[in-house]
Amino acid sequence: MQKIKEQEQPEHDNANDLKDIMQCSQQKNQFAKKGEIKKMKKVKVLKFTKIYQQLYDSDDEPTYIYFLMKIYKSYEQESYFYYRNYGFIDAKIAKIEYVQLDKKYETIDIYFDFFSLGVENFKKLIKMFKRKQDQKYLNLSIALKQYQMYLNNFFKNLVNLFSDKIKFSDEIQQRIDQAYPEFEQNVKQWASKELANELYEIELCLAKINLCKPTLKKKIYSKNLVLFLGSDLQGIYSKLIDLNLKDIIQNFLSGGEFNGELQLEKTIKILKWMIQDQFNQLTFQDEIFTIDGITIPTQKTIKYYSYDYQKKSIVEYHQFHFFYVILYNFEPNWIKYLIETRQNLQQIPKQIQYEANTNKTANQIQNNFEFICKQEYFLEKFNYVYQ
Given 78, 116, 196, 297, which is the most exposed site by the fewest CB atoms within 10 A? Predict the structure, then answer.
């Protein structure tokens, strides 16, 4: 059963005024100058109960391998599409603790409780893909084998490192945990300045010494990304509360990709990146699926950052706290396509529009979010110019 709890959040003076976010320079100044909290407002935060279950693996369902990488048993279009929305909850590796609207930094936050970060021994998958006698699956098998070797050494080194109870005591873990709220706030403050004009999501992670592993704590979605997906912050937050949370959140977490072969290529690239120096960013082609049922290609860039809680700063060496930033970039012609499609959808009677979107997303979207992206917004916000 879900619970609602009250949490105080600072109120952003212009959180609901879309005209303000059209002006990039003004937005940067807003974030830079807001150093004091003038008013406090209670905001509902959705709370979930913990249900711990064993990690399982079946013949057909995707497998999550460490660090939360989803590997499909088949990337052929029919099989891939069937399991496209198979997520953390379906795999029974995590529970969503709560969903929160942060009005100060204008983000939607999803807080997780993970009891597994995925299978650590995936030799079965390596053999399975090798047997397929297909070059693209053979490439995946090779990448998985290299990643498996990397993980074996990684875990061995962590165990040896954290076994020194003098250097890494329970007290150190307490300091790491206690520093997490400040880590989160500093990352959000940094993002509000450095990524003010970007569409992004952030994954916040920290080390667990007793487990000799890191864990993912929270996913953060920026206001710009939520607007692009098809709703304002308050609108999507209200829908998360009022409607089927699992289906709506799953649409956020899955990314909504439709092209199985594209996802296979992306998976191989990420596996190779994971075993290299992650301070080098990774860029690849992907797809995004909007809340109102529109699929458009995007270029994603993943960047890795570390945070030194003693220095209270973002650094370029590995630390107990770290985070990933996923940036989205779109070609101008696809922005134009999105705008025109949404304008056309507005001309369709609402009931027909709802049924069309419901059928298009295989009943995974529970409601049609009423939202139109204005041309002026994208032209000014992201500096796109139509040729």
Answer: 78
**Domain boundary assignment for the chain:** 3-381
pLDDT tens digits, one per residue of 220-265:
999 999 888 877 788 778 777 665 554 555 555 555 567 899 999 9
Q: What is the pLDDT of residues 352-377, one digit of tens each?
A: 554 555 454 433 333 333 333 333 44
